[in-house]
User: What shape does this take?
Amino acid sequence: MIRSMTGYAVRSRDLGHATLHLELKSVNARFLDVSFRIGDELRQCEMPLRELLGGRLQRGKVELRAHLQPNGGGALEMHANAAVLAQLAQLQQEVQRTLRDAATLSVSEVLRWPGVLADQAGNAEELLKDCLALAGAALDELVASRQREGAKLAALVGERTGRMRELLRGVAPLLPRALADYQERLAAKLREALASLDEERIRQEVGLFANRVDVAEEIGRLGAHLDEVDRVLEKGGAAGKRLDFLMQELNREANTLASKSVSGEVTGVALELKLLIEQMREQVQNIE
Assistant: This one.
């Protein structure tokens, strides 16, 4: 399915001594950009959470918020993780043996170190397990919301490609008559300006110029690009970048159609095509 980059999810889990709250929200971005706003007691979960999100999402600016709320209104009873402290002390000694001028870690730096502080449950593995399970459920909800939004975006883009096809079907029969009328007007002006020029030379010049203003090729390429847009929408997946490229190509052909047009009707169609393409481009910016 086509997925939007906009979504929101929130989940909570009762851990007994505390409640774990987790919130996910995402908006559009060129690449996947994940940021965290989590308490120190959950800092050890950041890398596993980053891997979890990276495995399911490909684009978007994603923010994850998580914190532990003590049950009963009291503060969480915190204590230092002796194993992590010992490991940190050993690492500090190794660094200072090599780098004599290296500063000693302060108490605040040690307390902010991932895994140093633990709650009264004292089980970092269980907390990580609970956090990942809750994040997985929230991620399912986020992906589902992005899919629902993506379906709406795909429908909007599909409506506009359908309208563009109608315009192209309507303009195709106008081209031969419009080109013939333009050739007649151009030939008449040439005869007036160059009375001494022979008819054969006039026909050659008019024919060469007519080839330069013929827009049948642009209309054909517009149709081909619309076919590709429909194919990408039907295939689904992470299609935002591909669709954005196709919008650029459609806009290029519509600009050429407008610049080469020799008919007011064709020019009007080209301008309406450009408007529809711009509307599609705005929607495509939100597709993953």
Notes: The chain is about 60% helix and 15% strand. The chain has a mean pLDDT of 84. Residues 34 and 139 are 13 Å apart (CA to CA).
